[in-house]
Write a structure and sequence with these properties.
binds zinc ion, mainly alpha, 2 helices, two-stranded antiparallel sheet
Length: about 90
């Protein structure tokens, strides 16, 4: 899987190099077709690479319930993203 992702990212890099090369001549003569072709190809390969990525491991993203609304939030959050209450902060602040 990682080899497939690497291959697609290398295609994106090659497309972006072509885009950069095309942009070098843009001050003199803008030719849209090769630029659009490179952008379209890069976006397609990026989407394919993202689709290959594994789903996030729920154990890696530790969440704690908000003390006010019980929605799961990041432990380091100082403000709940759901109810916007300030969450408990360490003493001394
Ligand atoms: Zn909340």
């Amino acid at each position: 899987m990682w080899a497939a992702i690497k291959q697609r990212l290398e295609i994106v890099a090659a497309d972006l190099r072509r885009l950069d090369t095309a942009a070098l001549g843009a001050a003199v003569n803008v030719e849209a077709a090769p630029i659009r072709e490179a952008v379209t190809g890069a976006m397609r390969e990026l989407a394919a690479a993202v689709a290959l990525l594994p789903p996030p491991d729920p154990l890696e993203i530790a969440r704690v319930p908000c003390p006010f609304c019980a929605q799961m939030i990041m432990p380091a959050a100082t403000l709940c993203g759901f109810c916007w209450h300030k969450t408990a902060r360490p003493a001394g602040e």
